[in-house]
Amino acid sequence: MSSEYTVIKAILVLEVRSATGGSTPLRADLRYDSREPYAVALTLHTGRGPVEWLAARELLIDGLHAPAGLGDVRVAPAADPAVTVIELRSPSGRVALEAGTAEIVDFLYRTCEALPRGEESRAFDFDRELAKLTSE
């Protein structure tokens, strides 16, 4: 396995929609590291500090075209094609975030340029992952 890797980043301003129809902007960072080839980190910058969520890159790609995800992270196109909805769920609640589709597409395009879809296994370092699981 090569020691070279790529990190792709994007800064987004998401809209958090309230039940009353209002919205609040929220800064978020997307990060893709080819050493973790299947995952994208989404860091939300909240008033209580940063909160990180991990999602499969494939989930984000699929969610641009149709609702995707069954667990804590769900992605779907909004009625307005310029908007993608990212829903995050936890035991303490859930939140729907609206993101600009073009910004997500640009980010995902750059990740696929760095490591094309279907080639993630060539970048996956099994020994590194096993060491992370077995070390304290």
Please give a structural write-up.
With about 140 residues, the chain is α+β, with helices and mostly antiparallel strands. The protein has a single domain, classed as Roll (Transcriptional Co-activator pc4, Chain A). About 25% of the residues lie in helices and about 45% in strands. The protein is built from four helices and seven strands. A seven-stranded antiparallel sheet has the order 4-3-2-1-7-6-5. A hairpin with a 5-residue loop joins β2 and β3 (about 40-45). The chain is globular, with a radius of gyration of 16 Å. The two termini are about 25 Å apart. The relative contact order is 0.18. The mean pLDDT is about 90.
What is the mean pLDDT?
A: 90
Q: Number of domains in the coordinates?
A: 1
So, the CATH homologous superfamily?
A: Sporulation-specific cell division protein SsgB
What's the CATH architecture?
A: Roll
| Overall geometry | globular
Number of strands: 7
Low-confidence stretches: none
SSE pattern: EEEEHEEEHHH
Q: Count of DSSP helices?
A: 4
Q: First CA to last CA: what distance?
A: 24 Å
Largest sheet: 7 strands, antiparallel
Q: Assign the CATH class.
A: Mainly Beta
Strand order of the largest sheet: 4-3-2-1-7-6-5
